[in-house]
């Protein structure tokens, strides 16, 4: 029995002697890969930034955004939520970045008889006069943001010679349908009054 134990111990010692330790990590190669990856990420970020600036330059013919009048009148509706961006009307992937319209942010919307006041903390505020409003609808997406059907309030408006869709999402999604009705009724009323004159 002792001979069996000593034979097994001898075999274990022989196997242990044959095993090699794990290869030591090649730190120079690993550091090279990390530096290369960081440079690649920086290049991609720089190209995206340059593309954003180039798009803004192409849209340079868009006039400055109007500011809210000093006395817009009493608020018909108010909404707090998120501004998801603006696109060329009917082309939900053609983002507009000129004058800060491509910057996502929190938003406070106020609808008055004068128009739609868009207040964005941390981004440029703008005002859409009632005469420039064209349509409001619920939709599922705008450049860079896709939600369930009816998840976004899209307001179509004219600015300069361009028709623009701006996308908003309320903190309380149920109130978006009320906004669609109020804006479309306001447009219909102003169109009827304009025709009657």
Which whole number gives the mean pLDDT? Answer: 83
N-end to C-end Cα span: 117 Å
| Low-confidence region ranges | none
Number of strands: 10
Helical percentage: 25-40%
- The helix/strand class is alpha+beta
Shape type? elongated
H and E order? HHEEEEEEEEEEH
Number of helices: 3
Supply Rg.
30 Å
**Percent strand:** 25-35%
Largest sheet: 8 strands, antiparallel
SSE topology:
Elements (H helix, E strand, L loop, with lengths): L1 H17 L8 H32 L16 E14 L6 E2 L8 E8 L2 E5 L6 E4 L3 E7 L1 E2 L2 E2 L5 E8 L2 E9 L5 H21 L1
Antiparallel strand pairs: 1-2, 1-3, 1-10, 3-4, 4-5, 6-9, 7-8, 9-10
Structure description:
By secondary structure, the chain is an alpha+beta fold. Helices cover 36% and strands 31% of the residues. It has helices at 2-18, 27-58, 176-196; strands at residues 75-88, 95-96, 105-112, 115-119, 126-129, 133-139, 141-142, 145-146, 152-159, 162-170. The strands form two sheets. Strands 1, 2, 3, 4, 5, 6, 9 and 10 form an eight-stranded antiparallel β-sheet that branches. Strands 7-8 form a two-stranded antiparallel ribbon. A hairpin with a 2-residue loop joins strand 7 and strand 8 (145-146). The radius of gyration is 30 Å and the shape is elongated. The N and C termini lie far apart (117 Å).
